[in-house]
Amino acid sequence: MSELNNTQPPQMEFSDDLRRRNLSGRIWMVVFRLSTVVGIIALVTLLLNIINQSAGYVHYEAKVDPDTLRVDGIPLEEQSKEQLMSVLQNNLSSGAYNKLDRDKPFAERDRGEVYDLVFDRVVKYKVEETWLLWDSLTHSREIKASVPTEQSGTELKFVVWANWDFLRRQQSSDPVLAGVRTAILGSLWTISITILAAFPLGVMAAIYLEEYAADNWINRIIRTNINNLAGVPSIIYGILGLAIFVRVLEPFTSGTLFGITDPTTANGRTIMSAGLTLALLVLPLIIINSQEAIRAVPGSLRNASYGIGATKWQTVWSHVLPNAMPGILTGTILAVSRAIGETAPLVVIGASTVIFFDPENPFSKFTTLPIQIYQWTSRPQDEFRFLAAAAIIVLLAILLTLNATAIFLRNRFSRRY
Amino acid sequence: MVQPQSKTENSHYVLEAKNLEIYYGSFKAVTDVHMNVERNKITAIIGPSGCGKSTLLRAFNRMNELVSDSSIRGEILFQGQDLYASNVDPVVVRHRIGMVFQKPNPFPKSIYENIAWGARIHGYKGKMDELVEYSLRQAALWDEVKDKLNQSGLALSGGQQQRLCIARALAVQPEVILMDEPASALDPIATLKIEELMQELKKNYTIVIVTHNMQQAARASDYTAMMMLSKDGERSGTVIEFDETKHIFTNPKDKRTEDYVTGRFG
């Protein structure tokens, strides 16, 4: 005390600038709010742009007016399978008809397929003109006036491009008939392979690095480089995948090792190669996320386990892993969401852009949604851009479903300490 | 290593620290400790913060090894056998010498599983329901939780959680229970319950407790070890006085002990 009494206290004046401090606080708040608003505007613009292209009026022109295809006065929609077959027979050359029968005998086709065939091969609707959703809503009267709907064979329909048929149909060079079933199946197959390969590998590596690896320079270099790997551009993984999975491991990725000799699975450019390449791509992300989750398990829990004589493995298996699982699952699903949207590496390893049959096993040729979108956007016709927008909506729906699953899992498994 | 091979003269000592030094890397945290822990007694370790009480306690069941690059020099004998001998598995050490921590840390599982898990990993062969009830009764918790054994252990109050942790430690049948400030996060009533429980438990177990609370040490313990930084300017702690609790609190030999226990320190 005495020491304090002897020293001269410093000058005790404070400037009264509360107003200025509050003002600068308010300015910063406005800046922060503006940045958020910019982000939201960008997002809304993106969504509106996609939605704008995903629906609207379409002016169809039929090559053969469906009205002229009535059988005994019955319109096409109400005809039976046999009547529809006769329509086909009457309007196609016998060679074309027989080829259809050879592809898949008519006896095996149901009415819906034959009905589709009639429109595909005989009526042959062609898109004359398309309008965006915004124009369709605001200028519907002008659009209706501009299309001579009274003329037979001419039709004006309001089309939502992302419809059930779009999900159900295969790829086609005709925008009226094109769908994304092949691409959705390709994406799901690919991502399943990715998860099966990357999840166990990533989690096990994370457990090793967090729980077992000593803190020496080798392990520090490994840890740092896993972080670096997470930042490597995805196209480089594509080149790696091309070199390793498509070329070197071709017997495995093309399935010849398992006796699959499908001539169409051209040299290893298969779902297997794509899935494994994407697995390499997301592996660092899964390892990093799992490490974070494992590190977040409180030390008190480990102490409790060791304190009653549990071994390291018992502690990891019964306490660390269950408590890290919500974080691991969330991280994995976010990593997988990224993989689903990847295009570049798949282009490099040779995904097919146009493919007319569904993938049946991991050794099939394939396409995926992003590849399909890329392919459609590079076509000159407007209607393919609309298809691309519809495919983007499908892709976004899949991604949102995945993220919702992540949130659900996190809430389901999370425990409090 | 479980049973002493030969009865030595000091066999009523369960734990003996001889010339013990504990290091974290090159930093010597505890130096020159000599102390003996008697069977079925409560031994308290007191002293100011940062003098190595918890470090010493954790050395008694090799929990300190979980901190990387910690090491000891000197000897700790458990029933006459070197705890740190190369043929001794730390898992067995922690099975025989249990631990209760400062902050209650039940597993995020049901009350039943909290008790049963430890027994199960050690290959318990008896009836699990009986063991759970017995352990909870020993920890004076049975009457409070018998109707909610399937509820989460985390749903209990702090004091109940700590007794659950004691029950969990008892369920694997240790001989020694180390308690690291077990009541410091609890209110006085819960603290009292823990102290009463310790008096019950010492009939069957040997207890070593670290505490900041000198009244607690005076009330509850039979022996007291007083720890201090060994010299001014050095950062290694050591036991400056070890004696029966009544001597430490009424007639300490060391001036620093006297200052500390009478509250004149600092």
Summarize the structure in words.
The complex is a heterodimer of chains A (417) and B (266). Chain A is mainly alpha-helical. Chain A has 2 domains: 53-160, no CATH class; 181-413, MetI-like (MetI-like fold, Orthogonal Bundle), CATH 1.10.3720.10. Chain A contains 18 helices and 3 strands. Chain A has a 3-stranded antiparallel β-sheet with strand order 2-1-3. Chain A is extended. Chain B is of the alpha/beta class and 266 residues long. Chain B has a single domain (13-261), classed as P-loop containing nucleotide triphosphate hydrolases (Rossmann fold, 3-Layer(aba) Sandwich). Helix content of chain B is 33%, strand content 26%. In chain B, a hairpin with a 7-residue loop joins strand 9 (223-229) and strand 10. Classes of the chains: A mainly alpha (417), B alpha/beta (266). The interface between A and B is medium-sized, with 22 and 29 residues.
Q: Let me know the largest β-sheet of chain B.
A: 6 strands, mixed
H-E string of chain A: HHEHHHEHHEHHHHHHHHHHH
Distance between the termini of chain B: 44 Å
Largest sheet strand order of chain A: 2-1-3
Biggest sheet statistics of chain A: 3 strands, antiparallel
Write down the overall mean pLDDT of chain A.
86
Residue fraction in strands of chain B: 25-35%
Written as H for each helix and E for each strand, in order along the chain, the element string of chain B is: EEEHEEHEHHHHEHEHEEHH
CATH topology of chain B: Rossmann fold
Classify the helix fraction of chain B into a percent range: 25-40%
Number of domains of chain A: 2
Uncertain stretches of 5 or more adjacent residues of chain A: none
The strand order across the widest sheet of chain B is: 6-7-8-3-9-10
Rg value of chain B: 18 Å
Gross CATH architecture of the largest domain in chain A: Orthogonal Bundle
Q: Per CATH, what is the topology of the largest domain in chain A?
A: MetI-like fold
SS-derived structural category of chain B: alpha/beta
Low-pLDDT ranges of chain B:
1-10
- What count of structural domains of chain B? 1
Rounded to the nearest angstrom, the radius of gyration of chain A is 30 Å
Rounded to the nearest angstrom, the distance between the terminal CA atoms of chain A is 46 Å
